[in-house]
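Dear support,

Our group has been running a series of protein-ligand predictions, and this particular one with manganese (II) ion is the one our PI (initials K.S.) wants archived with full inputs and outputs. We had some confusion internally about which version of the output was final, so please treat the block below as the authoritative record. The input we submitted was:
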Amino acid sequence: MIGDLRKKIDQIDNQILDLLEKRARLAIEAGVLKKDKPIYDPKREKEILDSIENRLPGVFPKSTLRSVFREIISGCRQIQENSRLENKTKKTHMIISSNDSQSWIKVSRSSQPEDSEFNVKGVILGGDDFVVIAGPCSIESKEQSDQVAQAVRSCGAKIFRGGAFKPRTSPYSFQGLGWDGIDILSQTAKSFGMPSVSEVTSIDQVERMASQINILQVGARNMQNFDLLKALGKTDNAILLKRGLSATIEEFLAAAEYIVSEGNPHVILCERGIRTFEPSTRNTLDLSAVPILKERSHLPVFVDPSHGVGIRRWIRPLCRAAKAVGAHGIMLEVHPDPENAKSDADQALSFEDFELIMDDLSRIPKDHTYR
Ligand code: PEP
Ligand code: MN
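Confirmed final output from the archive:
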């Protein structure tokens, strides 16, 4: 007996679901007819709710009906907004790719409306938490590596970075410790319970690096090293892709597409400053790239204020700005003795600087939107 009644209830639920689907589709059509007018129409929503409340009384109290329909209306509104955004993104792609085929498809927001989120050893990237990656520019010794890991972890950094293969402008500058640096980084990261990041500079390093390091970084100078990108696309590691020194946002997304199209969806985009005419800073940190990348792509977007500005005392305000503008996280270079760092000394943060930044960040709400 109760079984029969439950079956009927299930059938009705299915009908309600079908009707909700129909309602949402009509709402999408109505959204299109609204053209550029705002989707949210409080007058119309009030009319619907009032007319539902004014129907002949049934078993449901008016307040219940009102709250059920409020949810339905706001759900449909959300669907209208998403569909409008998707159409806009599609149109932008069409303009960009005019006579060429679109060079980034899998990473685009229209192919996946929801944000990509991935878990690297328990740290969620692209999710609700603002993630801080920190560590020295270069791993210089086990002692230095452990000291930095200890300091940054105690302030709340979640991922430990360190360069071992350093792409330096001058061949006479410190080139990194190579595999010895990778061994040190991976030991430190393991003993402090943090996932690791390091830059991979050539295809022949990929296999070994992928087995020792959790997140493989593609440096700005290699953003368009397509063979390297393809090789990384065949690994299972997350990839931190830096924006090239003079790369447009389109080229940056196309580089990410190279990795994803080979089967590895775990790409993190990292804005690290671009080359402009301005000599006061090492690079010009293009924070406007953050909302643009978030609108065009579903991939997590990080900012590297250390390389972005290149001067220690200006990094702190840009960390605050990166969080406020909607980045999913930042990456910073920290050193026990900043002035004597073997690479990028001008931008190396002391432990105290890092602590102040983390304290600032705790007071800035994360922006969850992508517009
Ligand atoms: C780095 O992160 O150490 C680095 C070399 O960065 P970029 O490739 O952005 O210069
Ligand atoms: Mn550096």
